Each structure stands twice: as C-alpha cells, then as structure tokens.
Amino acid sequence: MSDGHSTDGMDLNALRDGVRTVLSEQASHEKVAAFTNAEGVRDQPLWSQAAELGWLALFADEAHGGLGLGPSELAVIYEELGRAVAPLPVLGTMLVVEALARGGDADQQAAWIPRLAAGELAGAVSMLAPGAPAPTLTLSTGPGSGVVLDGVVENLLDGAAADVLLLLAREGEGLRWVLVEPAVDGVTVEKAATVDRTRHLGVARFERVVLPAGRVLTGDADEIAQALLHHAALALASDARGGANAIFEITLDYLKTREQFGKPIGSFQALKHRCADHKIALVASGVLVAEAVAKAASGDSAAGRYALAAKALASEVYARVAQDAVQLHGGIGYTWEHPCHLYLKRAKLNEQLFGGPAAYLDGVTDLLLAAA
Amino acid sequence: MSDGHSTDGMDLNALRDGVRTVLSEQASHEKVAAFTNAEGVRDQPLWSQAAELGWLALFADEAHGGLGLGPSELAVIYEELGRAVAPLPVLGTMLVVEALARGGDADQQAAWIPRLAAGELAGAVSMLAPGAPAPTLTLSTGPGSGVVLDGVVENLLDGAAADVLLLLAREGEGLRWVLVEPAVDGVTVEKAATVDRTRHLGVARFERVVLPAGRVLTGDADEIAQALLHHAALALASDARGGANAIFEITLDYLKTREQFGKPIGSFQALKHRCADHKIALVASGVLVAEAVAKAASGDSAAGRYALAAKALASEVYARVAQDAVQLHGGIGYTWEHPCHLYLKRAKLNEQLFGGPAAYLDGVTDLLLAAA
Amino acid sequence: MSVQTATNPSTATRRFDPLARKDDLDAFRAEVRAWLEAVVPADWRARMTGASEADYVAFQRWWFAEMGKVGLATPHWPRDWGGADIGIRHQVIIFEEIARAQAPNPDMFVISLYHLPATLFGNGSKTQRDRYLTGVKERGEVWCQGFSEPGSGSDLASLRTRAERKGDVYVVNGQKVWSSYGAFADYCLLLARTDPTAPKKQAGISYFILNMKAPGVTVRPIRQATGQAEFCEIFLDNVEIPVSDLIGEENAGWAIAQSTLSAERGLIIFELSERMARTLDADLADAKRTDAAWLKDDEARRAFTRAYNDMVALRLMIRALMQEIETDPHMGSTTMPTYIKVHFSELLRRYTEFRLKLGGLSGQLRQPIILGGGHQTGNAMHDFLLSYAWTISGGANEILKTMIAERALGLPR
Amino acid sequence: MSVQTATNPSTATRRFDPLARKDDLDAFRAEVRAWLEAVVPADWRARMTGASEADYVAFQRWWFAEMGKVGLATPHWPRDWGGADIGIRHQVIIFEEIARAQAPNPDMFVISLYHLPATLFGNGSKTQRDRYLTGVKERGEVWCQGFSEPGSGSDLASLRTRAERKGDVYVVNGQKVWSSYGAFADYCLLLARTDPTAPKKQAGISYFILNMKAPGVTVRPIRQATGQAEFCEIFLDNVEIPVSDLIGEENAGWAIAQSTLSAERGLIIFELSERMARTLDADLADAKRTDAAWLKDDEARRAFTRAYNDMVALRLMIRALMQEIETDPHMGSTTMPTYIKVHFSELLRRYTEFRLKLGGLSGQLRQPIILGGGHQTGNAMHDFLLSYAWTISGGANEILKTMIAERALGLPR
After folding, report:
1. Which fold has domain C265-408?
2. How many domains does chain B have?
3. Radius of gyration, alpha carbons of chain B
4. Subunits touching D (CB < 8 Å, at least 3 pairs)?
5. Is 90 exceeded by the pLDDT of residue D264?
6. How far apart are CA D144 and CA D147, in angstroms?
7. B112 and B132: one domain?
C-alpha cells in the first residue's frame, strides 16, 4: 500500500500526494476545527471537492461511472483522511457501493452506484461487528409487491449525513440488506453526537415504512455483511495508520522545539525511549495494515483475518500514540485549540467502530482456530 | 507489619533486625548459591539455626511449646526469608501447625505441634489454589480402626524436605486432611526439581498405605483448606515483598556504581523513570501486604480477600521488578554467579505457588461480588 | 436557578453540628451522614448536568456555604486559623461519608481550601492568615494559582513574570497559564521573579498574593479537550501588589511553592480516592445487578480487579501519609505524597479508560456532564480526558518520576 | 554418540541439490523439504535433550556439514565468496522449510555464517576472504565475537583491550566477555584499541582476526542464568596477531563493527522469526486438539492473539527489510534492522513469558533442554530466560531505542 503501484497500475504515491495536498488545504486543522465547532454533520465543500476529484469514484466499476480500482487505492484515501482527521463520510458511501457490487442486481447497481460514485449521494450502513447480535429492524412483506420496514437502527456512522442508508434487517428467520432513503415517509434520522466531532452516529427510526421490493438486495446477506465488515476494518485500520503517524509527527516536532530546563524536551531520554517504542509500534502496525490491504487487493483467502488483525493492532497503536501525545505535549496538548484532542478522540472512536478491540482479537482467533 | 508492635506486643522491628542479621550470615547469597548448586532439598544448618532461634515456634500456641504469636510476626519471617531468597521450608511447617491448631483434636495437637514448633519436624501440605479441582488422593476405611491412603500427590512444596505431610484426600463424597510420615510403608516421596533451586516440589505416592485413624484431622476440611490458602497467600506475598525490595536495592546499587559513557548508568533518565515506576509499585504492593497481614492478625472479615489480593499484586510486582533487574544489570545480571537469577526464578515460582495470578484475581473478584 | 430552595426542607428544621460529636467517632459519623442526607439535594446531579456556568458557580458557592455552616468546609485547618484541627480518623469519616452521599465536589474552592492554608500556615504573616483564611471561611473567597507560564511548564523555575519593587508596591508584568477557575477567583497565589540576576534561577523568585480585581489583571479562559474552560490565562500588565502581600521573604518563594504543591498530593487525592472507591464499588454492584457481560469476560473482569487492588493500595498509601502527617505536620521529609500522586493519576487514567472501553459505542457519545461531579460525571470520555489534568498538572508525572529517582532512590543527577 | 549413524538411511541413496532447482521456486522448495526429511534425524530433539556438551558440539558440526553438502549452509553468501547468491524468495523458502522440519539451529556457527561475512565482504582483503570464508564453508571453522568487555557493555567504544604494533605483529592485551561458543571457536572477530590518544574514543579502535589457538589466549566459560555456559570470557596476554589479520585500516574498526552488528538484526532474526511462527501455529493447533483451558480464558487467549499479530507484523518487517537489501545490499541507510531487533526481542520475552504462565507449576519444573532447539527447547522457563540474550546483547534495547530516537526520529542528543 505504501509504495509503488497497485496491481491495476495506478501510481499510489501520486495518488497519495494528490490527496494529501488537497486535504492539507481543504481539511487543514483549522478547517477541521471550524467544522467541529460548528457541530455540522457534513462538510459540504470538502465533500464536493472529493467528488469532483473522483475520490468517490475510485472504487466503483467502470460500467457504473467509476474507475474500477480496488482496496489499494481506497486505502490511500482512508489513510490520508485519517492523517487529516478529515470529516468526510467516505466509508459509509463506499460500503454501499461494495454491497451493491457484491449483492445487488443489475438494476440496483445501475440505479445507485453511479450516483454514489459521483458524490451525489452519501451512504451509511448498519454498524457491523465481529460476533454482533442480529439486528432488531424487521422487514416484512407489504402492500402489493412492496416490503415494510419497522424498528430502530442505532449507531449509523455519519448517518445524519447520508442520503441513502443500507440496513441489515430481519426477514423471518433470515437477514436482508435494504436500501432506504431517509426522505421517505415514516423514516426519521437523528444525529447522535460523538465526542469525536469529525464524525457522528445516527439513529434511524422506521414506522411501517413501505418500500418497493427493488430496495432489497438479492445477494446473500451474510456474505455481504462479511465483505462490509472486512472493508470497514481495513478502512479504519488505514484511518488509524494515517492518524497515528500524523499525531506522532506533530509530537516529534513539538519535542524538537519546546524547550525546558534549557534544552529541547526531546533530548530527555525517557521521552526518547517512549518515542522509539511508538515508532516501532507504528512500523509494525503499518506493515500489517499494508499487507492486509495487499491481501484484500489480491483476493487472498486470508484477507479477512488480516483485515481484522490490522484493525485490532492499528487502532490500538493509534489510541496509545494519541494518548501519549497529549501527555508529551503537556498542558498545550490538552487545550481545545491544539489538534491533539482531535486525534485522541478519533482514535478512541476508531477503537469502537464496527466492533471493539476484544471483538476483533476474538475474530482473529476464531479464524486462526478454524485453520489450525 | 512494617513498623511498631504487633497486637501481642512483640517488637516487630527488633524481630526483623534479628532475623535479617542471622540470614545475612547464614543465608548470604554465597551460601544460598552453594546450597542451590549442591541441589539439596533442605539446608540443615540453616534449619537448625532457625529452630534454635525459635522462629518455628513463633506461631504455635504456648500450650504446645510455642510463643503464641500471629500473622504479624510470621510475616516478618516470611518477608526476610524472601529478602534473602533463603532455602527454608518454613511455610509448609507452619501450615501444618495452622491446620492442627484449627482442625486437630487435643491429642493430635499435643502429638505434633510441639515437634513442629521445635523444628524436629518439617512439614509440607497439599498445594491448594483458589478454585482448584478436588484431589485424586483417596482415603478409605482400612483394617480395624485404621484408614487407607491411595494415590499420588504432586506439587508438594519442599515435599522432599518434609518429615510429615498434611494431605487433602477424598473420602467418599467428602474431603479430609490426613497426616502422613514419608517413612511409613507404601509411601514414596520424590523431589521434582524446580528452576528455582531454593525450593522444590515433591511427588508423593501412596499404595495402600495404612494409617491409624488418629491421623485424620477432625475439623471441617474446607475450612482448614481456606485457612491454609489464606496463610499461604500471605506468606508468599510477604516473601515477594521481601524479595522484590531486595533485588530492587541490589539493582539501585548497581545503577549507582556501574559507569558507561563516562557516568553512572543510574543517571540516565529512561532508567530513572523505570526505577521510579518500580518504587511506586513496591510501595503500593507493600502497604497492601501489610494491611492484609494486619487484617489476618485482627481476624477481620475481609482478611481472606486482602490475602488473595496481596498475593496477586505482590507476586506480580516481584516478577516485574526481578525481570527488569536482569535487564537493568545487563550481561552481568544474566550470569549464574550474580544473585539476579535467584530472585527472578523465585519470583516466577511465587507467581504459581498455591495458584497462579489469574486464579488469585478471580478469587478476589468472587469475594468482591459476594459482598457487592 | 434558585439554589436556596433546592435544599431539602429538613435542613431548616434541625441544626447539625458534627464537630460537637468529635469525641465519639460513631456519633460523629452519624451526624455527618444525617447532615449530608438533609442538605445534599437529591437531584443535584441531574440539575448540574449540562448546567450553565452561572448556575454552576452559584451552586458551588451555595455548597461551600452549606459546608461552612456546619464547620465541614475547613475542618482540617488548625483551630487557631479557623479550623477544627481534626485528625485523620475524622477526615476519613468525612470523606467516606461525602463519597457515600455522592455530594458535590467543591472544585472551585480547592486552592482556597488546601493550597492557600498549606502556603500560609508555615510562611504567611499573622495579618495574612487573619485576612485571607477568614475570607475563605467566612466570605467564600475563591483563590486560584498563578505558577505556570507558557514557557515554564515542567521547568517552573524558569518563570519570567517579573515583579519590581517600587516603594510600597511590587509592579508585576507577565503571563500565567493553567489557573483553574481563574475567571471566578478573588485572589491568586502568584510566583514572580524579583531577582533576575540570581545565579540559581530558583533563588530569584518571590511569592505573592495577587488581588484578581487589581487594575491590569486580565483573565482569559482556555477551552480544554473536555470542552470545558475552567483553566485560564492571566495577563499581568503593570499590576501593583502591596508589599504586605508578599508571602515570606523576598526571593524565598521557591521553597514556599513546594509546600503549596505538596498540598495537592495529600488531602485532595484523599477525597478523590474515597470517591474513586465508591465508584468502583458502585460499578461492581451495578454489574452484579445487571449481570453485565464484562463480568464474564476474563480480560475485562481481571482488569477491573487489578484496578480495584490498586485502588485499595492507594487508600492505604494515603492513610500511611495521614499517619505520617499526624506525627509530623510538616511532611517535608516524606516522599509518600509523590508516590501517591503518580499512582493515583495513573490508576485514574487506567480506570477511566477501562470504563470508556466497557461503554463501547455508547461511551463515545457526547453527553452533558455533571458539573462538580469530579471524575464521576456520568460521561466516560469526559472522565477519561479529565484524567490528564492529574498526569500533567501539579508537576507532570515525568518530573515527579525524576524527582523520585533522584531524591528518594538516590540515583545520580 | 556416533552422529554419523544417526542420519536416515535414505541420505545415502539419493543426492539432493536444491540449488540446481533455483529457477523454479516450487521445485526448489520441494527439494529443500525432501532433503530435510531425509537428513534431519527424527529423534534429534530427544537425543539432544540434556545431551553432554561433547555430543552437542559433535552434533552441531555434523549438522553444519550436512547443510554444507547441499549448499545450504552458506547459500546467502555471494557466489564469488563461496555462496549461491540466493535472494529473498529462496531464503524465505529455506527458513520456512527449516522451521517446518524443526531442524536443529546451527547455533555454534552463527558468527561464522552471518557476522564474519558481513564484516569481510565490505572490508576484508581478498586474502582474508579466501582464507576465512573458505575455512567456514569447507572446514566448518567456528568463529566467535570479541567486542564487549567487563567495563564496556552498552558503551562499547570505551573498550580497553590494547593492540600495539610491533613489527609485523600486533601485541594484544586485555579481556573480552560474552563471546558465545568462545570455548569451541577457531577464530574471533576482535576489537582492540590501537590509538589510545585519539580525541574521539571511536577513532582509536581497530578490527582484528584473532586465532583462538594463538599463545596467550585463555578462555573461561561463563555459566548463565539458564545453567548453560556457551558464553565465554577471553583473556588476552601478549597475544600476537599478524598484521595481515587486521581488517580494514588501522583505527577504522568502529565503522566496520557496525556492519558486523547489523548482521545480527537481519537474517538471524529472519530464521528465528520463521521458527517462532511455527511455534505459535503449533501451540494453537495443540490447544485446539487438546481443547486447552486457555482457549476459554479471554485474557490468555487474547494475549496469544496479540502475540500472533505481532509475530505476523515481525515477519512482514523482515520481508520489507529483505526487499530493501535486495535493492541496496549495503543497508546502511535503513533503520528497519533496529526496529526488527527491538520488536523481535520484546515479542520473544512476552511470548516466552506467556508460555511460562500457561505452564503453571509444570512450567516451573526443571527439565533438560533440547540443545540446539533455539527458543523452543521444550522448557518454558529456559526459553523465557534465553529471551534476555536478545534484549541485552547485540546492542541492548536501551541503546537501540536511544539510537532510533536520535537517528531515525531526529530527536536532539
């Protein structure tokens, strides 16, 4: 992921440079802070820019207006967004594309993918997690050929920013993925604010919401869920990788310039050793994330386990580095003005999104045991 | 435990000073090393000295030739033995005394306690642990009024040094404590060498061993077991406290004198911070051990929980400090000649004796939950 | 909000006087408990959840006044200076009962109650003690601390705020930072440099009482990672401090500042540790009642029990310190306060993070906090973030660890 | 013990030549595997369990010779110097297959195989390379390292062993320590001070080849915490080293020593990490087969999986390094070897301690170890203790962390 070209031949370094340049302007720490202070749900200028630059089209196939690229390119986007702590609901949108590509029929793909790839629609999906219980949302047959949704879905990542929701619902004994627009009658979506203000969670309520049958994905719900979980795991691992490296660099810069006792505090050995520990952890988790991305890109049979392992390790390292960054900065790192807390809060939310650390470790163990 | 007088009025500091002075000579690191190199099971000169000085008589009651003192005094002995990494099977012997005092009848007490208190007999007891399964040793009615023992008992601490074994056996659905002398027909006791050579484990085998009925303790076996477990936990916690402080002091001395890069290595900040962390952990676990001893001495209803908590914390801190001591010493701390490894090995064995770290933590949680 | 009407009706009907029952510990405890039951508004946590700053400040003042009415605001002060000279056993009871009653933290008065007396007892003039201790006790005057500066954090002795003697006043110029509740403070414990030429930088510092209403004092709140803003910057522009408000000798401020800081590592943590104990017990009882999933997770359950054992050890360390203080009130010789501060702050970090993790995604939701709730605000993330205040301020743990290594362990500089 | 008769009968019936199949990776792997199946005695671990030193040394020599017969002792050496110039993909296969076959570690030849060539390739004379690399390859000569001294551990550059030029020889006096297998070594890579007046202590050090049989060389084994004694002290009393055995220029030894040390952080850990991977897989498979209790203990199970993830990351770091080396064989620019060494050694400590804890009391029993078993000797405590060799030697982790902070992260000295 970090170097060279993806298998499809895209120059990943050029992509990374391009994305980073845009974000350093459009999602500078000042702009991110302004967005978070305004308590928005979607940074519309940034979203439009991302759409314009084709970031949202990377992953969709060419038949539907996309670039047909894969996990390697997407990981660059996720990592750079993490590095900038940028408020951009790319993950939910790409998950909808992924679900449609895997489990949608031709009509569904044609109806939705182009609009998602163009950035006309932002998406949000049910919060999956390794070993999570079944959803309470129910799908039943409705008037005519339609279906009816009832229930509540919590924890929709960036849900209040979404134009389309992709939700896992129970239909009798089975599970189904359903596409719903929040604008439809009987649907309400509320923002549940998180401490990390670069993102939020949404709560969607459905009261006898009637939808055409064509909103139900025909693919196997479990297979789709697994693919989405792995995609989300890789995305969050990449976000963590980018964020951890960024806050670590910010911290190193501070340690080199802040003077106490007549010298830069970075010259104190105890701090040096902590930084060395962080660096090694960043390298170790970095190569694991890169390999997980490479395995996803090549369709390796162990890709799922690597994705779960990468999320477990990278989000833990991100939290550790961001937590120590505040301590290493001292008072200034504890202020609202300083970006430290943006990273710390994003790191702590990352740890919990799409399942917490224990769930990921247990997921890895299960896969290892199955193969042992 | 650390200061002042016990409730019975003994001057604990004087006791401590006395024990430490004797051990600094009779159980110097050189003597301990010589004992471990010789692979002995009992340091007879040291044992005789301990008996002569009345250490083994501290805990027995006055009616049976003891001094009638309690946990506070005993903890001083255990802590000092730990400090010296001394090879002395006091714990097993005291556990037999404790069991007899709690669950023996008058004849049993009169027959055994004076000899244990005088150091004529060393004892060893079944290895208990929080939540451990029932023993496999069986007790059945034998010829005449006697009983018959059959089976194998592993993990007898200092078992091959013992003159009398106190064993938990199954009798039908119930449990019983039985006293056996290894010299009896049908009993074999073998030493199972541990990496920590200051102690060992014993394996005792019983083939239709016929004993008089008077060898079975009449007291409630579970109550005795619980008392012994708490006694052992406190003893090991005290041993850990003494050992951890000793190896830490040895390490500090080394850091103050060993020079590299033109200055004492103790002047390097990263090492300073590790030492400060160790010191704080030593203080924290130290006060917990002291309080556990005080609660045992006063018969507090929470004494059992404190004993388990003290063992969990103190043995973990001992292991951590001893492990880092080797690293802080560098090469020299990794040699057989240096005492570091004696402490490290004793610390690692302490962690496992009478149950491992997880069993102790779970034992504490159970007691907390019961009270919650 | 009218805080007065919020008190329970019973307050009016009975006068409480725990200190009159000092000689009988059980009776003392019963009286403290009865008073707390009568006076602590049952709904204060709900009312202070997301309350406005003005309501919060009013509530703090009301609570401080209530404590003062029964002599429990300043019971730890010496009798001569308006306290009740109570010893450790009474203090334990007060803190235990306060924790049990989940009474508000008098956060705004921490400097007034602990740092100010620790500073004045040994070093203040009689006039200063009479004036300022009485001010706290009788008029609820709020104090803040003016030690750190933007360029002087860990290296406090490098501070650059300048005080120049001109006749009967010192003229002060400079900038202070991280002063809790500076925006509401009446006075400030101020360190400033009086001799810039002193060969050792510690030797040129003096200790002043600064009237926050004096001309030239400007206060700017700093918003913290928690979103709150009780920390402030203080700008000093030709502020005049009367010579009578110099504490101790000129240029002798550094040593006095150490007694101020040591206060932070004693009674304040004592109260917090009692509250922490209460929290852990409550968390476990809740888990038992709801048959919480984490009790069946060996890793989470053992993390809890490890924290519990550490908490028990913390309380024992504090009791050991209190015993030392009873023997020797000047506690300059003991290193225990430093061990306690590091141990407490790291445990606080670990436990608040544990709770945050247990909360899963719910723990990530932004929720209004209970102002005055200390580290139990009902918001796991807020409590977690707030734990940094303890690892960074009052001597960052890094500084304290070096101090332990050099002073207590004798490792070479 | 007769090691020769211990080989499997099939060895005699077929000649293996994996290197001839270099161009087809699958065929290469199959041949390596077939060779290992034929040559590794099925019972070697049992035979080496608690074996005598003499038997162990004989077994090591036999194994090294067997590896040499098929070109797999020195395949990583350049072709010009007697190797096969194989690249990373072949090396991966060899190590994977060796780990899979649980073949013996050629512990006694580590310096001969890695440190010696890393030193001579860039800095040795052609004569030195011809003589000494051939000696290793064809006569199984054993090398040891003479760097550390009792007074120079972390601070290697302060070494005091003195070499004085007298005509055609250097006369060497001093003492070295921690030389693995010094008692069996034919030669030693020796650092000694040739210019005690150099202003920078690094600048006065030269690098020599020391014949361990030379008069004046005395070796004393040091017993380690594990009970074994492969480390030695070397006493040098007026030992004469011919000028032709100086490596590189006089006083240029320090820089050359860095290439020696970097060897330690590359291929050696590569092989060990493959074995570690095998151990973790085997431990998990065992646990699954026996339905081990620790699989149901959330804390223990997650500790395993964390270690597993760290192990996977370690292997990826090593692969990244191998790729760097293929691009730039001089790897002086990369910091990856240092990250790898610290990460590996800390993981090794953590995992060996994990296994020790799982063992409960059984893990505490003294058991004869498998000599040549590397870190999988069948004795959890031994493996745990042996992990210190990796955190302390070859640059203690403390030294490496400072190096990372200053050189890779640019933190000020």
Report:
1. Butyryl-CoA Dehydrogenase, subunit A; domain 3 (1.20.140)
2. 3
3. 21
4. A, B, C
5. no
6. 10
7. no
Domain boundaries, chain D: 3-103, 138-251, 265-408
Could you give the C-alpha distances from A59 to A4, A100, A295, A325, in angstroms and in order? 19, 12, 16, 34
- CATH number, domain containing residue B196: 2.40.110.10
Work out the pLDDT band at A6, boundaries 50, 70, 90. Answer: low
Chain A residues whose CB is inside 8 A of the B268 CB are: 269
Q: Identify the domain containing residue A333 by its residue range.
A: 222-371
What is the 8-class DSSP label of residue A300? -
Contact A260 C158 (CB under 8 A): yes
CATH code of the domain occupying D3-103? 1.10.540
- Segment A343-354 shows an average pLDDT of 98
Q: How far is D108 from chain A (nearest CA, A)?
A: 30
Give catalytic residue positions of C: 264
Residue C7 pLDDT > 60, yes or no?
no
Asked if the model's pLDDT at residue A7 lies above 60, the reply is no
Amino acid A3: pLDDT: 43
CATH number of residue B251's parent domain: 1.20.140.10
Under an 8 A CB cutoff, do C223 and A155 touch? no
Report ipTM for this prediction. 0.95
Q: Where are the beta strands (DSSP E) in D112-166?
A: 143-146, 162-166
Residue A157 within any structural domain of the chain: yes
Name the residue among B256, B273, B283 with its Cβ closest to that of C410.
B256
Identify whether residues B48 and B21 lie together within a single domain: yes
C112 secondary structure, DSSP code: I
Quick check: A267 and D402 CB within 8 A? Answer: no
Model pLDDT, residue D374: 67
CA B11 – CA D82 distance, rounded (Å): 76
**How high is the mean pLDDT of chain B?**
95
Does residue B6 sit within a domain? no
The mean pLDDT value for C296-300 works out to: 98
pLDDT in tens, D331-342: 555 689 999 999
Q: What would the pLDDT profile of D171-213 be if each residue is shown by its tens digit?
A: 999 999 999 999 999 999 999 999 999 999 999 999 999 999 9
The pLDDT of residue D121 is 85
Residues of A in contact with D408 (CB under 8 A): 279
Q: B338 and B260 share a domain?
A: yes
Say which of B197, B260, B349 has its CB closest to residue D153.
B260
Give yes or no: residues B163 and B204 share one domain: yes
Report the pLDDT value the prediction gives residue D3, as an integer from 0 to 100. 45
Q: What CATH architecture does domain D138-251 belong to?
A: Beta Barrel (2.40)
Tell me the backbone φ, ψ of residue D330, rounded to 5 degrees.
-90, 0
* C-alpha–C-alpha distance, residues D256 and D119, integer Å: 6
Q: Please check whether residues B234 and B352 belong to one and the same domain.
A: yes
B213 lies in the same domain as B226: no
> From the CA of D296, how many Å to the nearest CA of chain C?
9
Name the average pLDDT for chain C. 91
- A5: in domain: no
* A137, A238: one domain: no
Question: What pLDDT is recorded for position B1?
Answer: 36
Q: Cβ–Cβ of A194/C154 closer than 8 Å?
A: no
Q: Is residue A4 assigned to a domain?
A: no
Could you count the other beta carbons within 10 Å of the beta carbon of residue B183? 9
Cβ atoms D217, D139 nearer than 8 A:
no
Domain check: are B289 and B337 in the same one? yes
Domain boundary among A121, A138, A155: A121
Mean pLDDT score, B199-221: 96
Axis-axis angle for helices A357-371, D298-327 (nearest 10): 80
How much is the pLDDT for D190? 98
| 3-class SS of residue A246 | helix
Burial class of residue D412 in the structure, from the number of CB atoms within 10 Å of its CB (0-12 exposed, 13-18 middle, 19+ buried) = middle
Give me the mean pLDDT over the B93-103 stretch: 97
Residue D310 pLDDT > 80, yes or no? yes
Candidates D264, D326, D353, D398; catalytic one: D264
